[in-house]
Amino acid sequence: MHEDLPQLSHEEILRYSRHLILPDVGVAGQRKLKAARVLLVGAGGLGSPAALYLAAAGVGTLGLVDFDVVDRTNLQRQVLHGTSKVGTPKLASARERILDLNPNVRVETFETRLTSANALDILRDFDIVADGSDNFPTRYLVNDACVLLGKPNVYGSIFRFEGQASVFFAKQGPCYRCLYAEPPPPDLVPSCAEGGVLGVLPGIIGSIQAMETIKLILGVGEPLIGRLLLFDALKLQFRELKLAKDPDCPVCGAHPTVTSLIDYEAFCGVLAAPASDGVEIAAADLGELRKGNPRLIVLDVREPHEWAIAHIDGARLIPLSELPERLGELDGHAEIVTHCHHGVRSMKALEILQAAGFANVRSLKGGIDAWSVQVDPSVPRY
Amino acid sequence: MATGTVQVRFFARYAELAGCETTAVSVAVPATVADVVRQVREAIPGAALLPERPLAAVNMRHVRLDAPVNDGDEVAFLPPVAGG
Ligand SMILES: [Zn+2]
Questions:
Q1: CATH architecture observed for domain B2-70
Q2: ipTM, two decimals
Q3: Confidence category of residue A1, pLDDT binned at 50, 70, 90
Q4: Summary count for chain A: helices (H), strands (E)
């Protein structure tokens, strides 16, 4: 039996001894792990613990897709990367850490954004995909590619203090689109960069993804197929939703309408945002503009707790959520520049102001972050 | 026409928008999940931002919007989450 599975070296037998003495793993299970090929989409908050535990557990081949560089704001949760790696590619950092942990692992890196053009080629050679991406277009892309290729998608996602996990395996249960047929409006659900996330949370959810991946490889236990695990860190509560496959699902239903990969950015409506010609102003230009026009209103539309971290001297704070009711506080003839953290919410504010008849409004491109980098380094970045 | 009370539970971002995690909602029975969605979007100011077709569960079982809702049921709405 298992003659096609790779043998374990003496070093591996010693390394995995706590697995080998587990009845549900044993030598046969460990050889399955060694033969397994797992692709991690994203080497960030979820991908970090998943990669570390899968590597430690002896998964033979780990694929990693990411195109980012390690940023200092990643270190609070992305435990794959160390302070010395800030500014270097995440995949180089991940490879070094994984091989230090377990040199038996073969690391295959794909330093690219996962797209409709490359996803099938990248995913095809793997047995299981673990989705730790951080945006809706990639979530739908990974889902559809997994359905089309017949591969299980070990899913995890996080927001602030709450997380979700499931195994979307359309051969045996529902897929992501059975739950969320339509993407949310782009501004309904903030990203972690805008909404924040407790650093330990991806450690818990990413570890669950690693656990489910290993169970699928070993064929033991009851995988999270057909169940959505909901985790609330503040209550320390796990709940479970029984999922149903949608017979009308556009990708895994009886009569699918999605039979090849589509344009997921357009599908999720995230391309609509950069229609910002002329309404955005660069930080350096705002610096000059303020000198020439002391009546210029710099309108900060972030939340008060963000203002407390850092703000631009002389700016006025009206959080985006309160802006529609507080328009009366602003002079309709004044020149206004809206700003937020990175320049997304300030574009929403600009739309609100323009719709209310404010004629001379622009949005600070890159937000207070760009202001700190380009104009006033005394303003801390966050 | 009879009136039933259902317990509505909002998860994650929806709870932030609605300003609460749970709330009791009266609906004319027999009702469907879609009726509860409509009721919630009208009655709770922040919940107007809920999509017309949110992921919904009755008694923690994922259902379609045409699923029946009975007096005493818990109807949960779950937002998509993409953070990683
Ligand atoms: Zn489906």
A1: Roll (3.10)
A2: 0.93
A3: very low
A4: 15, 13
